[in-house]
Amino acid sequence: MKIIFIVNNKDNRLAKLLPKLDQYSRKVFQGEVQFLFTERKKHAIELARQATENECDYLIAVGGDGTLHEVINGVMRSEIPSTEYPTIGLLPYGSANDFARTAGICKSTEELFELIQSNSTQKIDLGKLELQETRETRYFINIVGVGLGPEVVRNMEQSSGVLGPGFQYFWHIIKGFLRYRKKQLSCSSDSWQWQGKLLQMAIANGRFFGRAICIAPDAQLADGKLQVAIFGNLSIWDYLKNLGKLKKGIKISHPQVFYQQTSEVLIESEEACGIEADGEYVGIAPATISVLPEALNFLKSSGKL
């Protein structure tokens, strides 16, 4: 059995975890255990692709949503049949860990090893994002955001981050509301269409984004559908008034808020409208977003996805 951990140890934040993880894994598992460390943005994509093509059995992301996003994209870019993909796992040590909230994954090393030993896996869906301008394909495991969210993500990527992730995210949301100009956008699926001024849209495989905001309470990881939440021409006051409900997973009743589901949707805009995937800024509309049912085996205890 070959297990590879892909670790995002930015700023040495996992200094206490890694010695324990290394010692315990080599004690528990008799097969080959390897630790690979990311050194730059998108490095986990390269490492995961190589690990997949080198036929590892379990590929574990140690980090947050962004690290998991890159690992997933590395697996999907590998040149081997999907039937030979490794089982994916996660130790959620990021700043947001929104996918882990949906999947019910905790930071317990012991629980992760128990899942590996018992081969407790479930098939989960992936999202596929095709950007028309760059002809790039990205895969996402949690949520694609369109509009305000990508601008917040991009501004955070360019900031120093000295204020801490929680306050920094809230601060950039407020700045985004004050500076963001809503884009005229249209989206179309096989059974519905929408167009108008857009504040924020989420196309969701998971339920949470933006540090525990339950934007898509109906989302499930293995139902072959994407949930779509559209926040149209809302003001900052409308958003802040309903933030408590969003945190609790309560759908918002408002003339400018719409909920749909789809297996594929086309997003179009005549002006530059940003897109992020799993908290990573990826480009601008137009784009086609679709679901790949049961695309991956994921380490998870049995239960509803």
Labels describing this entry:
305 residues; Tumour Suppressor Smad4; six-stranded antiparallel β-sheet; transferase; Rossmann fold; alpha+beta; 18 strands
Indicate the CATH topology of the largest domain. Answer: Tumour Suppressor Smad4
Mean pLDDT: 91
Assigned CATH architecture of the largest domain: Sandwich
Total domain modules: 2
Strand content is 25-35%
**End-to-end C-alpha gap:** 27 Å
Helix fraction by DSSP (H/I, runs of at least 4):
25-40%
Radius of gyration: 19 Å
Number of helices: 9
Topology as H/E string?
EHEHEHEHHEEEHHEEEEEEHHEEEEE
Largest sheet: 6 strands, antiparallel
Which strand order does the major sheet show?
Answer: 6-5-18-15-8-9
**Overall morphology:** globular
**Helix-strand makeup class:** alpha+beta
GO molecular function, one term: kinase activity
Organism: Lentiprolixibacter aurantiacus
Keywords: ATP-binding, Kinase, Lipid biosynthesis, Lipid metabolism, Magnesium, Metal-binding, Nucleotide-binding, Phospholipid biosynthesis, Phospholipid metabolism, Transferase
Cofactor: Mg(2+)
Q: Care to describe what's here?
A:
This protein folds into two domains: 2-119, Rossmann fold (3-Layer(aba) Sandwich), CATH 3.40.50.10330; 129-294, Tumour Suppressor Smad4, CATH 2.60.200. A six-stranded antiparallel beta sheet has the order 6-5-18-15-8-9. Strands 14-13-10-7-16-17 form a six-stranded antiparallel beta sheet. A four-stranded parallel beta sheet has the order 2-1-3-4, sandwiched between helices. It is globular, with a radius of gyration of 19 Å. Helix 2 (43-53) packs across helix 3 and helix 6 (148-158) packs across helix 7. The chain is built from nine helices and 18 strands. With 305 residues, the chain is α+β, with helices and mostly antiparallel strands. The protein has helices spanning 17-28, 43-53, 65-76, 98-103, 109-118, 148-158, 165-179, 236-241, 243-248; strands spanning 2-7, 32-37, 58-63, 87-92, 121-131, 136-140, 143-147, 183-188, 193-198, 200-204, 208-209, 213-214, 226-231, 257-262, 264-269, 274-277, 280-284, 287-299.
